[in-house]
From TrEMBL:
InterPro entries: RelE/ParE_toxin, RelE/ParE_toxin_dom_sf
PANTHER family, alphabetized: TOXIN RELE
Keyword hit for Amino-acid biosynthesis: no
Record key words, sorted: Toxin-antitoxin system
UniProt-recorded name of the protein: Type II toxin-antitoxin system mRNA interferase toxin, RelE/StbE family
Family of the protein in this entry: Belongs to the RelE toxin family.
SUPFAM superfamilies cross-referenced by the UniProt entry: RelE-like
Pfam families assigned: ParE_toxin
Length: 85
């Protein structure tokens, strides 16, 4: 099954601010989520139900909607601030 990937507007803005070559690496990693969304680490606590993948030094935070085959990316930020509101 191939999942459709959607970005929250905030995540899209964050992505557009990321410098090369990180931008290219992140876009490739997001593309790989479509065929295997469970490669990320399950998060706990306040972020229970979310997943995270690392593209050093950035983190991609996303949630998977299995019923609709959608991956919703909520944040793409530097590792130091990604878990802050």
């Amino acid at each position: 099954m191939v999942y459709k990937i959607k970005l929250k507007p905030k995540a899209e803005k964050e992505l557009n601010k990321i410098p090369l070559p990180y931008y290219d690496w992140i876009v490739k990693r997001i593309g790989s989520l479509a065929s295997n969304p469970f490669i990320g680490k399950k998060l706990a606590g306040e972020f229970k139900g979310y997943y995270s993948i690392r593209v050093w030094p950035y983190r991609i935070i996303y949630v998977i909607f299995k019923k609709w085959l959608i991956i919703y990316i909520v944040s793409i930020s530097h590792r130091q601030g990604v878990y802050k509101n």
